[in-house]
Amino acid sequence: MNQSNTFWRVALLALPLSVFALIIIWPLLSSFYYGFTNWNGFSDNYDFVGFENFGKLFSDRLFMSAAINTIIWMAIAVVLPTVLGLSLALLIDSHVPGGPIFKTIFYLPICLSAVVVGQVWVWIYQPDWGLLNTIIEYVTNDRFNYAWLAKPDSALYSVIVAWSWQATGLSMVIYLAGLTAIPGDLLEVCELEGATTWQRIRHVILPLLTPATVVVVALSVINSLKGFDILYIMTGGGPFNSSDTLAMHMYNESFKKYLMGYGSAISVVLFLVALTIIRLYFKQLKKVDEIYG
Amino acid sequence: MADTATLGSTSGDYVAPKRFNPWPVVIFICLFTLAILFLAPTFGVLLSSVKTTRDIALGDLWAIPSSMYWGNYVEVLSNPAVHGYMLNTFLVAAPATAFSIALGVLAGYVFAKLPFKGSDLVFLLVVSGMFFPPQVILIPLFRLFNLMGLIDTLWPMIIVHTALGIPICTLLMRNFFATVPNPLREAAILEGASEWQVLTKIALPISLPAIAVLATLQFTWIWNDFLWPLIFTQSDEKRTIMLGLVFMKGQYSVAWGIQGAMSLIASLPTLIVFLFFQRYFIKGMTMGAVKG
């Protein structure tokens, strides 16, 4: 019996684990390897350059601004989809008529591709007939044609807002799932004790939603690291690299300038950042699990 | 889920029914306004697709059209390149979805029913794969498929999406198989069934809901993917729809109406999947997120 168990473990795991190892783990490890070379993407010979690529990161002005932009993106990703998602979940959970329809509407963007979302938002920000400027013109009754995506001051933030539009739906459903787990009689007791709606949310619902918040915040941060497609469509990292992120910078260096060795070094940095966040996330999950069961 | 939500908030109706309670009205108006704002981007595409480029350029995009103009759809649907893009995307998404689920079933079954020393660690390693940005494995995979001469074919995309699907598929299948009672398996084995028979004859038939969840998620993600086709394809004949969309944007640079119709047609398969299987979709998203 025991022996046959071992046989089946090996037999069933062989294929999935070898595909995973070959396509995920091995490339991950070789990214580290290429980070120490000056490979250009095509030639068969390349040299080891030691820590040159990693040293170059610190003097690369574009890398530094990409890193800062990534941090900005993360910071906004922690706030915007989380607060919006929580508010929407609380509103929908309040037994409002049409709740399921609202849920579908707010969740819908998640099934759209980043390419389509990006394009839609390019139109919103379009200077001459975009929705945003149209509304501003309507409200102020004045001519307004600010080019949101073409100005270094606003390009990055404009993309992050578009990204958040899509990310909010996921936060909302996670919070909704969290809300269903709160026992109804607990809320009824609050009501009987005369707690106001605000007190109920502040002192009962929010604390009980901590596990959901951990998941929402972590996913937002992790997904913000992956934000590439929508940026590629909306600004391509421009104007003048003002909206570059690490993922974008890595793509540009590797597949536009064919500095694959240097690009690998950037991807190693990206990996280490992601690893740190994921470890923090798993640790928080475990803690939350211990407290909330 | 909806049922428990109702349970959780019945307390709202508990207050004295005679007094006028403004909250539901206020909340409804709030949500309604937000919903309109939220729908505006999608609605804009819809509007643009039934308007002529001239109308849009004149600033009429956001007005309700007095007459529908179908020329954009005719233009897009009669373009043979679009047929090719759609076919390519389907040829990538369908097998990659099937393969990744199959691999997830195999691995998930072992992690749920045949755990071994250190299996939790292996499981965690596999699952954490879904959190990393794909840029981390971009260059080595480009080199690998380049050496194999597979660049500009559909194969790299099928293979990579199969592999990238393993974490989420393994996670969901393990969690589902964990709910299959152990005595069921043991009884079957005592009666001479092999592990393979238990998996295919007992565990699989009852895990169809989990497979449906994964199929909707995987198909949507792969259909919508942009990065991998961008890296792995070169010729127009091998482009997937999302890549084609971007390249055709150059071709129809100011033909916004045509771009709108194209976006809509490109999103149609995932929109249909979403609207019909929304329940599965949400379940998969929350399960994948929460249990991670």
Automatic annotation (TrEMBL), chain A:
Q: Which domain of life is it from?
A: Bacteria
Q: Pfam families, alphabetically?
A: BPD_transp_1
Keywords (A to Z) from UniProt: Cell membrane, Membrane, Transmembrane, Transmembrane helix, Transport
Show where the ABC transmembrane type-1 domain sits: 67-281
Q: Which InterPro entries match?
A: ABC_transporter_permease, MetI-like, MetI-like_sf
> What does the record say about its membrane topology?
Multi-pass membrane protein
PROSITE patterns the record matches: ABC_TM1 (PS50928)
Give the UniProt subcellular location, in the record's own words. Answer: Cell membrane
Q: Which GO terms describe its cellular component?
A: plasma membrane
Q: Which residues cross the membrane?
A: 7-29, 71-92, 104-124, 155-182, 203-222, 259-282
CDD domains (alphabetical): TM_PBP2
State whether keyword Zinc applies: no
Q: Example GO biological process term?
A: transmembrane transport
Q: Which family does it belong to?
A: Belongs to the binding-protein-dependent transport system permease family.
Q: Could you tell me what this protein is called?
A: Carbohydrate ABC transporter membrane protein 1, CUT1 family
Organismal lineage: Bacteria, Pseudomonadati, Pseudomonadota, Alphaproteobacteria, Hyphomicrobiales
From TrEMBL, chain B:
The answer on whether this UniProt entry bears the keyword Transport reads yes
The question of whether rRNA-binding is a record keyword is answered with no
| Gene3D superfamilies per UniProt | MetI-like (1.10.3720.10)
Tell me where in this chain the ABC transmembrane type-1 domain is found.
86-277
- Specify where it is mainly localized: membrane
Localization recorded for this chain is: Cell membrane
Coiled-coil annotation reads none
Record's InterPro entries? MetI-like, MetI-like_sf
Q: Which GO terms describe its cellular component?
A: plasma membrane
The portions of this protein that span the membrane are 23-47, 85-109, 121-142, 154-177, 198-223, 254-277
Tell me the keywords, alphabetical order: Cell membrane, Membrane, Transmembrane, Transmembrane helix, Transport
Q: How does it sit in the membrane?
A: Multi-pass membrane protein
Which processes are annotated in GO (biological process)? transmembrane transport
Family under the similarity heading: Belongs to the binding-protein-dependent transport system permease family.
What this protein is called in its record is Carbohydrate ABC transporter membrane protein 2, CUT1 family
**Can you name the source organism?**
Pseudovibrio denitrificans
Q: What is the lineage of its organism?
A: Bacteria, Pseudomonadati, Pseudomonadota, Alphaproteobacteria, Hyphomicrobiales
